[in-house]
Write a structure and sequence with these properties.
13 strands, three-stranded antiparallel β-sheet, paralog of FGE (formylglycine-generating enzyme), alpha+beta, 5 helices
Length: 326
């Protein structure tokens, strides 16, 4: 196992890397009931136009390619108001018999603080991110490994899903993963060059707006915002466009290959480089903390391998307006 750092080719952050070579094709699923097409229910319309993507914020990570700030033009599109939940993903698995990468590989990363002492001791840990344990039998339906489950968390975001898994779900649903530019535009909620979807102050007036690590990372989480792990997909206030939890809760996969070499004039509907070794993830998670990984800012970004999964990574879907969503 290796940490997500220079060894793996992607920036250091609060999540571990994948387990093998990139899988370029979206895995096939068993024939069966399939979503009839992209259902606009639960999706938000993002009007087309120009927005300023990226940041030169001093709080940012220049090595992550957060800048330069650049003007991007997008056509109108729709995006899920919420991350895909456990119950939604269960519908997909029930309809298709899909097997996730974590199930196929046999293990996934779980935050050590969620595990009983015996399992923490016997589960291997990446040297540079020792708060993660590689737990045999951990997958989306058993998020903390054997004996755990999603009961009571049906409305929480599905986790332990790789990019391959997210793309397979999106295809089944008649949707797709958002491009990185679409994700950032939607996450900004109409605010230009603000640090968060609601403004520049993390907790305006002492009001918690997102699910992140509260306390001293990684030893003590006060859960002052109400959650130690994932929160329901509709927790906290939505942004100006009606999107929930685009800061914190779970990292979200995007369609783009990772790069830090951005075109200052990307043109219309940019989709990133044609190839790469990892896919972009956005939004940060409940494990992000200002002392180590304040990547819950809307311009923050990192990447992971296509088969990578862990207990803090999920996704939401997008759709073109001409694909049946109205």
């Amino acid at each position: 196992m290796r940490a997500t750092d220079s060894e793996g080719g992607h920036p250091s952050c609060c999540l571990p890397s994948g387990r093998g070579a990139p899988v370029l094709a979206v895995p096939t699923v068993r024939s069966g009931r399939r979503a009839a097409g992209p259902d606009p229910t639960g999706m938000v319309l993002v009007p087309g136009g120009e927005f300023l993507m990226g940041t030169d914020d001093a709080q940012g990570f220049a090595a992550d390619g957060e800048g330069p700030v650049r003007s991007v033009r997008l056509d109108s599109f729709r995006i899920d108001a919420h991350a895909v939940s456990n119950d939604r993903f269960a519908e997909f698995v029930s309809a298709t018999g899909y097997v996730t990468d974590a199930e196929r590989i046999g293990w996934s990363y779980v935050f050590a603080g969620f595990l009983p002492a015996a399992l923490r001791r016997t589960s291997p840990r990446p040297a540079r991110t020792p708060w993660w344990c590689g737990v045999s039998g951990a997958y989306w339906g058993c998020p903390e490994g054997p004996g755990s489950g999603t009961a009571g968390r049906e409305d929480h975001p599905v986790v332990h899903v790789s990019w391959n898994d997210a793309a397979a779900y999106a295809r089944w649903a008649g949707k797709r993963l958002p491009t990185e530019a679409e994700w950032e535009c939607a996450a900004r909620g109409g605010l230009e060059q603000r640090r968060y979807p609601w403004g520049d102050e993390l907790d305006p007036g002492g009001d918690y707006r997102c699910n992140i690590w509260r306390g001293s990372f990684p030893a003590r989480n006060t859960a002052a915002d109400g959650y130690r792990g994932t929160a329901p997909v509709d927790a906290f206030e939505p942004n100006g466009l009606g999107l929930y939890n685009v800061s914190g809760n779970v990292w979200e996969w995007c369609a783009d290959w990772w790069t830090t070499d951005h075109d200052r004039h990307p043109g219309r509907n940019p989709t990133g480089p044609a190839s790469g070794t990892g896919k972009v993830i956005r939004g940060g998670s409940y494990l992000c903390h200002s002392s180590y990984c304040n990547r819950y800012r809307v311009a923050a970004r990192t990447a992971n391998d296509l088969d990578a999964s862990g207990g803090n990574t999920g996704f939401r879907c997008a759709a073109d307006l001409d694909s049946g969503t109205g």
